[in-house]
Amino acid sequence: MLEFRRGLPPGDTGRGSLAHGQMVVPHTHVRGQLLYPSTGALATTTERGTWVAPANRITWTPPGFEHSHRAYGETEVRRIDLPVRLGRFLPALPSVFAVTPLLREALLALSDGRPRGPGPRHRLRGLIIDELTDAPQQELYLPEPSDDRLRSVTSLLHADPASSATLRELGRSTGASERVLSRLFQEELGVSFRQWRSMLRVQHALVLLGDGQAVTTVSARLGWANPTSFIEAFVAVVGETPGRYQIGLRRT
């Protein structure tokens, strides 16, 4: 179960906080779970990869998926558990959604700890489901490989996202050729090496931007050749510029 520094009250909704870097060990839920980081950012990891939800996104984990969490920054999390009959309206795989103003208010209201009767709780849940089914998915998803050679490469990049090493150079430490690794990226992960590394850097950029760091600083820290390249990569994954993303965070 999700353990916070300030514990959640009993029941299927609540709020709590996680310290920067705090981990939640792998676990599963009988119900589906929505987690909304109203501040900070929350990463959810399964065997399929990692989804990141910053403060203007919400993460959905279906029942039965083993997953873990990690907080980036001081992260306040709102939790909504959904029974199977409601969860069936949402994707069968972990997902991240954009949070509309109406959705945000419903999430905050349902998880604020105030006693509510079955009727109001049911209507709030229904509103949340309606908003999620209409909201665009914002995957912010980084797939993880199962092939040992590919995992060796991705582990090196996880340790140093700013690394400028080529696939050929990374392959030397794993005993696999550039050609083999390139094929594995496409066949197993469905993306190229460049795309995967870019997505990894964008996930790290979300955290740094959430800390208030300047776009040019984030670009340099994560190894992009120039801020323009960073902005283009960020827009391709997130759907908005880093600057607009930061403005949106200040409005949450």
From TrEMBL:
Keywords for the protein's UniProt record, in alphabetical order: DNA-binding, Transcription, Transcription regulation
User: Per its UniProt record, what SUPFAM superfamilies does this chain match?
Assistant: Homeodomain-like, RmlC-like cupins
Q: Which residues form the HTH araC/xylS-type domain?
A: 151-248
What InterPro entries does its record include?
Answer: Homeodomain-like_sf (IPR009057), HTH_AraC (IPR018060), RmlC-like_jellyroll (IPR014710), RmlC_Cupin_sf (IPR011051)
Q: Which SMART domains match?
A: HTH_ARAC
Q: Which GO terms of the molecular function aspect are on file?
A: DNA-binding transcription factor activity; sequence-specific DNA binding
Would you tell me the protein name for this molecule? AraC-like DNA-binding protein
Q: Which organism is it from?
A: Amycolatopsis umgeniensis
Source taxonomy lineage? Answer: Bacteria, Bacillati, Actinomycetota, Actinomycetes, Pseudonocardiales
